[in-house]
Each structure stands twice: as structure tokens, then as C-alpha cells.
Amino acid sequence: MPAATPISALPDIDTERVFSGYFDIASDSGPGSEVIGRINLHRNRNVANSPIPGDYEFVVIEDDSGGMFDLRAERDGDGRLFGVFSIAEGKTAETGDYSLRVELRQGLEVIARFTSPVTVAPQTQWDVYYDRVVEFVGSQGRLTGRQSYRDSEVAALIAEIEANDGAFEGMRFYGATTLTEWETIGTNKLGRELQDAANRIGGLGRAYVESRTYGPSEQDADRERLRNAIYLALIAYIDHFPLDDFANSGVVPYGDRTHQWLYSDPISGAAVLIYRDLLADLHDGVQPARDAKERLFRLLQHVNFDLPDGWRMPTDVRYYLPDQLSESSGAWADANRHHRMRSWATMPVIWYDYNRPLTELPWWYGDYEPFASEGTSTLPEWEPSGSFADLRVWLETNARYAARYGQSGISPDGSISHHVGRRQDLAFGAYGFPWMTGTTFEAASLLAGTLWQVSDTAYNQAADFLLFAYPRLIYQDAIDFQTIGRGHYQQSAATYGSGNLAGGIETLFDARGVGTAIARERELSALRAAMVNGTHEQSGTTAFWVNDYLVHRRGGAGETPYFTSVKMQSARTRGAESFSSNQGFHNGSGVLLVKVDGDEYNDSRQSWDWHALPGVTEEMRTDHLPKQSDANEFNPNHFAGVASNGHYGLAAFRYASDNRYTSASANKGCFFTEEYVLALGNSVKRERNTNRDHRGSIVTTLDQAAWDTDITYRLNGAGRDSVIRKGKDIDESLSITGNSWFHQDRIGYVILPAGKIDVLLRGGESVLDSNPEDSGPDVFHLAIDHGIRPDGEGAASQYVYLLVPNVSAADMPAVVSRIEQQFEIVNTSAVQGHRYADGAGMLMQLAFYEAGEVTVGGMAVAVDKPALVQLQQTGDGWNVAVQDPMHHADEAAIAASEQFQHILLSGPNRITVEVSLPLRAGTYRYETQGPDVRFMDGQTASVVSNGGTSTLTFELPDSLDAAAYGYKEELYAGMPAVVDVPSA
């Protein structure tokens, strides 16, 4: 007869799935003490529809602890079944790691067999975590409702709660339990009441740890009374909360239903702060404590993970790739993760169970269709399995990478976006920065050294993001305000390097656990030190092509430092949002900045006329600016592009807007060389508002900056210099016909008119202050006046000017002379650009708005479609950069779409450039740009030479390359391609 199979060798059975990953208890715990962690059934999540049979029982079949543990089955009020370990009668918990084999039986049938590992240690993992979370709650104002009550206020609130069975007075929602009753209150009012009540509960939680009367060191009776009041308040609040189908019910505003932390943060914060005493009350059988705990689970597991119907469907292009679901970033792949993380981080405390999933909502599980058929879920890396493990997954998947326009996350060019419903935004500040450095890593620090410590990957992803972008954006401690989203008006932009960035790096370091290895830690440390010490320098030109942004700067290695950038908008992108309607409307409308001292736009933005941003061509209005996001009306044009070889670069776009407040349209190009930025514009035209009273001129602003020195200028290349003393009120219109220059501080401005034009020069009180309630320094404003009604033709409808950093007024005549000798410029509706020659060689930069040919300085260049082309002469050949400013757009398909998306043309994305240069024939490979630099198959430029003419054919990313680009081909389609080609 064969030997019986040892129990330890019996295979696992998962007919009924269980969660039984970890359990622990403090050393020396006595008989009856419950182990932290319970055996959870997978089907507990569906107990309302599929009750758990009453004859289920748990049995320990093997135990290496010597009988230290008992196991019993326990059900909660909703019928969920749990397996509860406790210290057996006559036993004491002895330090060690134990393994218990357990069966779940239904009668004689074994429907689950599994191992339950139990650790006995001086301190449990939960205890370690709890102490940290208490500090975390204290540092996060939202978790205590941003309330700080006096003891007299606490007493009044306690009395109010006791008198009203847990309710606060004057709030109608406490009388509602049905959809009809909630709807009767009104959407906005109900939302406000629920937030107000939650914040009061959060404030009472804070009083429980800080109050002189009710705090930890005071009378037990007062403290118990407050705790019981919090129980009652939690019970009443959750009993009357519109939880059923919360995300879709419509009883509170949509923004509240998708920003659930407005309700859950203060509730969960209060729960944490009373939780140790709540556990004691549970042990003592205090019914309100039990009721409050069950209701906390009911609320938080639902409201914190509820999704609107559309967000659960693979057709939602913000989160999913419908044709490649498993490659999707998944639900909540956006910057609001750092908000969600606050309440999520509290949930393992409140669950008091390592094995209980953070949510039971079905769309997060692997059997939810249609995701299940694709072998994935709404978050591809996750199926809920236990509170601590679930939290770790959300932390480790923090960095999300956009795959298409209309998705939040980090793009292949290194930029980051959050609000993408109508256009892609650029969110290196508000949203993006705290997403990659803030609450997420503060929450990660809570798990440091525990069994659920966050892996190195999350840290390295954040490090790579920070190290690529921010050294390029920050100059003299200030970040380019056009890149930081809603924070563009905040004064903290002036100290972003030593403040935000240095602090963010420190948060990353502080969050590390035992053995955490950040591969680029030294680089982060060096960057932080440079920011704090004011020694940061950076040189180069970077094209952030996904967001129509380019930065060009010098500094370090003996270079005289300066910073320039341009931010455009298109059918794909928008400018930085604003919280206020009085600034920010024209963000991204071709904003062209130049900085030498670094403070040119710091405090001066508080004194700006926000109708006239540097680089922008628009009407000079004096009325109240609307909020950019009030209307979903943006630039309808697809043509917008940036290209760079890392040293020089160019940018161009068709400016227009569907917003009725705007008046102008124009073709606008910017060309960045070693010493200058050349700005070209043509086809400047008034599109609307022709009959409005008090019409203003259409102007192109060269600069509006802090007025730090006298202004010196010379008109028409002749005569004596004119000087305007700093701070003098000035409002002049200067007529010019010849090359003219202006100078202020260390920046020169050279205007090369095509005929008679007017130049506006304003300063001091003459500059309209859009925000007079904010105090800022005097500014000066220099602009080209195109007149009331430019028609797109003639000298008045175009402009040519140059920004010249690091010059003195005395240098300017010689600067103008050099410009006249070195530049040959073309500025037509078909092509803009120049040929620039100095002792180092020749540089040609051209923006073709359509297929065509142009000859500049004797060199002919032709393209077969709209393109940006840069040709830089090198020692033995030419460096050639090409970009598709249309991003291979299928304009007809996009126009027919009902939602914002960028649809590529079918077939190859190819640009052919013909140049009158003898180049060596062959096939040349180019690298991807952005943070991930590498050669890829298909990234080639083939050169065919025919005597003195060469034809270069660039193969650019397209839908045929989808898999190779990780299904991010939409975002790669506008990537510049750069090759070095030897002369023939």
C-alpha cells in the first residue's frame, strides 16, 4: 500500500480564491490576542450578489508553531467571511516566523488549501506604519479638513453632534437617504455640505491629538467624549452619503465625483488619529466603534476607487489604448494620483488587515470585461490583493508615460501633461512636479523598511524625469513660467530651483528605504547643490516637440550665460492655464522670452499688461481678460514645430484662435543662433472684432520686462542715441523706416523693418497693470504696431526683429552692423528663415509652411511638404535637422472626430529635402531625441547626390512603426531627426 502523502506536500487548491499573504502579532501577546491580518475570500467583494455559504469553515491542517494559534471564522455585518488567527489558550506569542497550512472546507469538500505565514516580532509592520502615518496626517492639511478648532469650538461641535444623533446642524443631507432626496438639495449645495461636514470631522480628529482639553494628556472622560462624538459623526455622515454609483449619480458636481479626496481626505485623517483608541474600544465591545469602522470601509473602498462609466471603458483614450489594452497606462494615469495618495496611504491603517484589498469595486479586478479578454485590467499592473501590497502597486506605477495626445503623463520629449481634455498642456509645475516628487514619495517613505518597501524603479523614474527637464528650464533659480501650468503667476517661480526642485529632490532622498539604490543619485545631489548654491549652469537647445516648446540657452564652459525660450500652441497643444481671468489668457501664443540677469520676468509679472506677452501678436486691448479655460476654443492650426540639433534650433507656427476674444492671426517663426534670436512674422491680419468700440492696434510685443536701467535707442540707423531715464512714464509711438535698435539692462532689440512701421515704447504708469491689487516693479513694453486693421499684406503686416543678450548700449551700433552683414533673411507666407554666416561657418534655418523651394544667400533648399529644416556647416560636412510641423496629421479625420485626438495619416511619414550642396551618398541613422536617446530601426535619412545637388529623404515615425515606439507613434511623429552628412 503506498505511503500517505505528507500534509506539507499536499498541493494548494484555489477553487475558492483567498488572500492570505501575511500576518503578524507583537511578541509576548497573551491568550486571545488577535493576529493582525485576516484570511480574506476573493469573493467577499461580491457578497451582496453571491452570499457566502454558511457551512464554510477554516481548518489548520499543519502548524509549525506548536499550537500557538487558534483559527476561527468570522463574518461582518454584510456577510463577508474572514479567517481570524489568535493566540491559543495557555500560549504566549513567541518571536519567530511560522507557517500554517490551512484548508477552507465546505462540508467534506476542500475548496481551498493554502499557507498562512505568521510573524511574531517585537513590533508589527502595522505598528511601524501607523506611527509614520500619524505624522503624515499631521503634515497634510487636507487630511484634517484644514481646520484648527479652539477648545470652545470643539465643545460646541461635540454638543451639536450629541444632540443631533451625529449630524451637524443646518445641513440638509442628513435628512436624505435616497437619490430623489439628494437631488432635491441641489448638486452644488449638496457637494458643499458634504465637504463642510467632512472637514469638520477632520478638524475634530486634529483636536483629538492637539487639543489642551481633549488631547492625549488630558482627562480620559473628555477625550472619550470627543472620540464617541467622532464615531457618531462618522456613522451619520456615511449613512447619508450618496455612495451608490457615486461617480455617475450626478447628485454632486462632476469635479467632486472625480476628485473624491475632497470628501475622503478629512474622513480618513480623523479615523487615523483616533485609531489606536478605536481598536481598544473594539476590544471592549464598544458598538459605535464597530459601526464606525464598518462604515469607514464601506465609504473609503468605494468612494476612493469609483470611476465614471466612461473611465471604465477602453474607448476612453485618456487612459487606454483601445487596440492595445495591455499596453495602456491605465485608469488614473494623471497627476491627481498625488492627491489620491493621501487617503490611500491611510487605508492600510484603517483596514488593520494586510490581506484585505483596498477596494472591492469590480472594474479593478482581472475578470472585468472587456479588459479580462485582453488579459489585463483597468490598471494593467494591478489586481487588488491586500492593503499594503495594493498601496505599493500604486506607488510603483506612479510614473505614467503618455502614448498619444489626450493622455496625461510623461511624453517621449521629456515634457509632462495633466489637463488634456481639449489640448495637451505643459505642466512642469502645477500638477507635474508634485506628481513626480511630492505626496507620492512622502507616502513611499511610509513603507520604507517594511515588507512592502517601494522598489528602486519608482525612484529612478522620478530621477530621470527631474534630471532631464528641470536643468533646462531653470535659469538663475527661476523656472520658465510658461512651463509650470497653473503656477505661472506664482512668485515661487522665481526661486523654483532652490525652493521647489531642491525640496523635491530632498523628498525623494528622504523617502528611500533600506538599500534603495537611485542610479543617478550623485547627479541629483549635484543638481540640488547647484540650485541651492546658485551655481547651476546649462548650455544647449532642447526641442520639446510634443508640447510645441523650445528652450535655447548658454552657460558654463566659459560661455556668457543667457536663456531664451518659445512656447507655442496648435491643434494639439495649449498654453499654461490660469486660476484667474486677469492673466494667462495669451500663455503659449508664441511667448518668446529672453533672460540674462534671470529676474526679468520674476516680480514684473505682477505689474504686467497681460494683453501683451513677449513674442505674442495680438490686439492691444485694455479690458478685462477672460480665463483661458472658460471656453474650449484654441488654435485650430496643426502647423507648429520645433527642431534642434542640441546646439541651435528653430520654431514656427500658424497663430490663430477660435476664441472670440482674440483678434489676430499670423505666421510666426523663431530662429536661435549662438548670439541672437531672430523673430520673423508675416501675414499678420485682424480676423475679428472689427466693429468693437475702442478697438486697439494689433501689436507684436518684443518684450515686457522689469525696467532695471535706462532705455537707450537709435532709430533708422542714424542720428544720436536717445535715452529714457529709468522709471519715467513714457508712452511713445515711434515711426521707423530703417534698421533701429533699443537697449535695456543687458539686452538689445534690433528691428529690421520692410518699410515704414510704428514702434510702441511704454514704461512706468503708462503700462496697463492687469492686476493692480498686486504690487510689482515698473516694467517697460516694446512692441511693433501693425495698426488697427492689418490685412496680411505689406510692411505693416510683417515683422523682423532680433533679441541680443549680453550686450551694452555702446555695443549696439556694432551689433546692428554685424547683423546686417551676417544675416540674409526670407520672410514670406510660404517660408521663413535665414542664412547666417560668421567665422565659424554657415547656419541656415528655414520653416516651410508648404512644399516649395527657396534660395537664400545663393543656397537653394526645397521640400516636398511642410517642414522645418536646419543646416549647420561642420568641419567636413553638414549637420542636418528636419522636423514635420504637421506631426503627420490626418486633418480630415481629426476634424471629423468628436473628441480631442491626434490621428496620423496612414502610410509612411517621409520628408524629402533637396539642397544645392554636394553631399556624400549613403544611408544615415538618427537617434531618438528626448530622455531616451537611442538608434532605432527605420530612423534613417538616405542621401542621393547628383553633382552639386543632393536629395535627403528622412523616414520619420508613423503608424507603421507603432510597436517599435511602444505604441507612442502619435507622439513621436513630430520628433526632429538629426544626421551628420559628410561633403562629397
Question: Could you please describe the fold and organization of this structure?
Answer:
- With 984 residues, the protein is α+β, with helices and mostly antiparallel strands.
- It has 4 domains: 7-123, Sandwich (Immunoglobulin-like); 126-303, no CATH class; 540-829, Distorted Sandwich (Beta-galactosidase, Chain A, domain 5), CATH 2.70.98; 874-982, no CATH class.
- It contains 20 helices and 42 strands.
- Strand 11 (474-475) and strand 12 (478-479) form a beta hairpin.
- Helix 8 packs parallel to helix 11 (337-351) and helix 15 packs antiparallel against helix 16.
- The longest helix is centred in the N-terminal third of the chain and has 24 residues, at 187-210.
- It starts with 17 loop residues before the first strand and ends with a strand.
Brief account:
The chain is an alpha+beta fold and about 1000 residues long. Helices cover about 25% and strands about 25% of the residues.
- Biggest sheet: strands, sense, closure? 9 strands, antiparallel
Rg on CA atoms, Å: 33 Å
Number of helices: 20
Number of strands: 42
How many structural domains does the protein architecture include? Answer: 4
What is the global morphology?
elongated
The helix/strand class is alpha+beta
Query: What is the strand arrangement across the widest sheet?
Result: 18-19-20-21-30-27-26-23-24
Helix content bin: 10-25%
Are there runs of 5+ residues with pLDDT below 50, and where?
Answer: none
- CATH class of the largest domain equals Mainly Beta
* Portion in strands: 25-35%
The rounded distance between the terminal residues' Cα atoms is 88 Å
- Determine the mean pLDDT: 96
CATH topology title of the largest domain: Beta-galactosidase, Chain A, domain 5
CATH architectural category of the largest domain: Distorted Sandwich
